[in-house]
Amino acid sequence: MKNTKKNEKSENLEVRPNHVSHDFSLLNSDDLHWFNEGTHFHLYQKLGAHAATHGGKPGTYFAVWAPNAERVTLVGDFNGWNKSNHPLRPKGSSGIWEGFVPGIHKGATYKYHIASRHNGYNVDKADPVGFFQQTSPQTASVVWDLNYSWQDQAWMTERGNKGKLEQPISVYEVHLGSWMRVPEENRRSLTYRELASNLADYVSQMGFTHVELLPITEHPFFGSWGYQTTGYFAPTSRYGNPHDLMHLIDCLHQRGIGVILDWVPSHFPGDEHGLIYFDGTHLYEHADMQKGFHQDWKSYIFNYGRHEVRSFLISSALFWLDHYHIDALRVDAVASMLYLDYSRKSGEWIPNQFGGRENLEAIDFLRRFNQEVYKHFPDTQTFAEESTSWPMVSRPLYVGGLGFGFKWDMGWMHDTLNYFKDDPVHRKYHHNQLTFRGMYAFSENFMLTLSHDEVVHGKGSLLNKMPGDEWQKFANLRLLFAFMFAQPGKKLLFMGGEFGQWQEWNHDASLDWHLTESPLHAGVQRLVGDLNRAYRSEPALHAWDCNPEGFSWIDCHDSEQSTLSWLRRGPGSEDIVAAVFNFTPVPRHYYRLGVPEGGSWREILNTDAADYGGGNVGNFGSVEAAPIGWHNQPYSLTITAPPLAAIFFKKS
User: Fold this and answer.
1) Which of 51, 185, 232, 545 is 20 to 30 A distant from 601 in Cα terms?
2) Interval 558-611: pLDDT, tens
3) What architecture is the 409-450+462-489+523-652 domain classified under in CATH?
């Protein structure tokens, strides 16, 4: 299907010059008070462009915040982009300008022409609360309605049970523009509607519970992957219009798949039509660039202490949960928000009022963000990408936490990938990189991630990080995935990793789907599907992901043989899985493994199985426990630990 946005035509009637009604408003005194107070969290119902009827004439009501403007006029395709024909008026002393224009309807393109009180600054700005924007490089906002007939009632009724701590959460992270492309049409990206059934079918087949979308909020530069946002209320038009995105989410929900949106309140780009220097002053950002500019990303930091900015950002978060039925928000770059000296040298940052490096305004903002999300949408979740040891990120506000539902475990990811890069002959010297997580695994509600950040900028793909020849690379990758799925914590895997993409991710190209025709790549893909199914079906592998009762070591000290083993438990007495890992290419025959119960232990997963591309070294389906105490357990199994492989046993 073609991008329907390109085929949309404005339904505008003839719009008369200077015909703006100023006696119609969606804003009342409470709205203005809450907005200026920083507690209006549904701005999308009031600001922006809204269809309305006034004096018997249908049209559109416009409202924009520009407190330091001398004059604000509406420009667009309906008036030939004339900068004087349709002036807006200020709403009291709120800083908001508004006006109703009859004859403007869905599909009309528009901007606000702002003449500032300062320095003679004049600029055309896209609508900060606009629901749709033109496709880059065009930058105008588009009048749109968000009415959509959702068919996901069954999902919405039950979704509160899907994201709980005790439920399996296995996330497939996706960049929509490069997941799959159409080679017959200059390798263009799929549209939201083309993606809908294809993505839902694939994710369902692979057994993931959720899809996480790299930011689909509108962004001017495709190469930013969405992390340089200009439209905090607008889905990118590269793949279609707002209704097309709703159709994609609806389709995923109908297949029982949750949708997580990567949301970026940490910074925004300096494109002239965006938020930067909006009304000729530093409205959304700090005036002092020691507080307001990200040197790494060449972008601007929100002024979290400004009340109206807090209203704007939290309204954006609630908007996606409200109008798009998003099930969770993953907040990007939280560490950059928490620390005033983030990526800054001495003398390049301003301490807080107590002389510290903590960004007190950002901390307060994040806590209020989580409070409002869980207040208005208690059946959703929030995830923090936070890369430091900041305490209690995923702990409740009432005990002093930031209030997130989950935190990404960046430490586990770095330690594990560093370990796996080593040749197996050296791994015994780095055993602690695998065991260190046991010291903090339950200090937060963790999600283990192998995300997009690990397969870009010359880092290589997951498969290419692995040492050894082709067989060893694939065996190591299968072992890595099993190591992640057996750990306590929720899971996330970036697209392409699940079938062993050779090349690192390229946002301008499709994944190399042809690789799945190769037995080794197909084997990795089959394994990830089976890991997901084991994770979802075995309470021992997910129910106590965030509970220390769900994990205990069998043996964490066998560095000489580079093996690890542990028990995962669930709430039922029968919910016990033993996981064994051999990080060398040497099979460990007659390996004795302590277990808590006698009887038969069934081998429920073996990453060396021939179906996965392995050598089929294993234990013939099950092993009988002997009453021989071992590893501080009353019974033990005598097993074969396959080379560069993981095996899971379950008490029969």
Assistant:
1) 545
2) 999 999 999 999 999 899 999 999 999 999 999 999 999 999 999 999 999 999
3) Sandwich (2.60)
